[in-house]
UniProtKB/TrEMBL annotation:
Gene Ontology annotations for the cellular component aspect, listed alphabetically: plasma membrane
Keyword Kinase appears in the UniProt entry: no
InterPro entries: CPA3_antiporter_subunitC (IPR050601), NUOK/Mnh_C1-like (IPR039428)
Keyword Oxidoreductase: no
Entry membrane topology: Multi-pass membrane protein
Keywords associated with the record: Cell membrane, Membrane, Transmembrane, Transmembrane helix
Family, as annotated: Belongs to the CPA3 antiporters (TC 2.A.63) subunit C family.
Coiled coil: none
Protein name per the record: Multicomponent Na+:H+ antiporter subunit C
A Pfam family hit: Oxidored_q2
TM spans (from-to): 30-50, 62-85
Compartment list: Cell membrane
């Protein structure tokens, strides 16, 4: 029962992250939404790996590696957003017509 709850919670986090990624124009909110998608995937993969009969350290190692990579990618993305905000004065990307 609890593994199903973890898998459903991971799927809900992915859904919320996709909604936030598509619905929010502010770049920092998009970074947070992208991190929410990653966290949901890590939770879902952890629940899927725990369904096996034996203890397999490979999925756990992959999840930990993914968390480290996601943290460093998030730091890089926030740095790029800060540079964008300093150069253009806003943290929004222009739309197709060039409006902010």
């Amino acid at each position: 029962m609890s593994l199903t709850l973890f898998a459903l919670t991971g799927a809900a986090l992915v859904g919320l992250g996709v909604y936030g990624l598509l619905a929010r124009p502010h770049m920092l909110r998009r970074i947070i939404a992208f991190n929410l998608i990653g966290s949901g995937l890590f939770l879902f993969f952890g629940a899927a790996a725990a369904r096996g009969t034996g203890l397999d350290p490979i999925p756990q190692a992959l999840i930990i590696t993914g968390i480290v990579v996601a943290l460093s990618a998030s730091a890089l993305a926030v740095g790029l957003v800060v540079a964008l905000a300093r150069s253009s004065g806003t943290a929004y990307l222009p739309d197709e017509e060039g409006r902010l």
